[in-house]
Amino acid sequence: MNELLEELGLRNQITIEDIPEIDLYMDQVIQLFEKKFNDSKRNDEEKLLTKTMINNYAKGKLFFPIKNKKYSKEHIILISLIYQLKGALSINDIKQTLDGVNNRITGGLMELDEFYNGYLDIVDKNVTGFKEEVEKKSNDVNKELESLHAEEDKELEQILLIASLVNMSNLYRRTAEKMIDALGSKEK
Fold first, then answer.
1. CB 19 within 8 A of CB 77
2. Which of 6, 32, 97, 176 is the most exposed place for a label (fewest CB within 10 A)?
3. Among the three residues 91, 114, 137, which one is the final residue of a domain in this structure?
4. Are 21 and 73 in the same domain?
5. For residues 99 and 11, what is the distance between their CA atoms, to the nearest angstrom?
6. What domain range is 17 assigned to?
7. pTM for the whole thing?
8. Tens of pLDDT along 125-178?
9. Which residue, 90, 114, 138, sits at the end of a domain?
10. Mind listing the pLDDT tens digit for each residue in 57-72?
């Protein structure tokens, strides 16, 4: 299990230090993401970020407008947050979640670097907690298999662990969606 978790590249994140001080064209943004998250891809065919995706994020107003076809450090940070959020949330939920951040940035009320570094600190703690939780789930699955007298059945072990992880993922996603709904009603 530890090998599997290491293969996931859970700590792969775009840090403030990874982002150049100069604004980037779209192809450069895509290259930055490909370089940073290449190890996180499920397979070689998976696209991390495409021009179409970025254009859809811009059209959907998931981040404030770009200038002169270049993306600032703030845009790259927001695209990184979108990249992380899109694995569990709809585009509308992401927009609603990031609206407050975008408004604060355009209003000069927020230093996005500090917010993003705080997010990265939380991600690091989440990865540590996740690894511990997966180990606990694996132990729970093995105990269940023992009670079924099927402790040698590796396929059943994997199926139970997969189902458990998906269940936890759904619980987290549903909780996040309820928080987004509350955020939306607060804004109205």
1. yes
2. 6
3. 114
4. yes
5. 26
6. 10-114
7. 0.90
8. 999 999 999 999 999 999 999 998 887 889 999 999 999 999 999 999 999 999
9. 114
10. 999 999 999 999 999 9
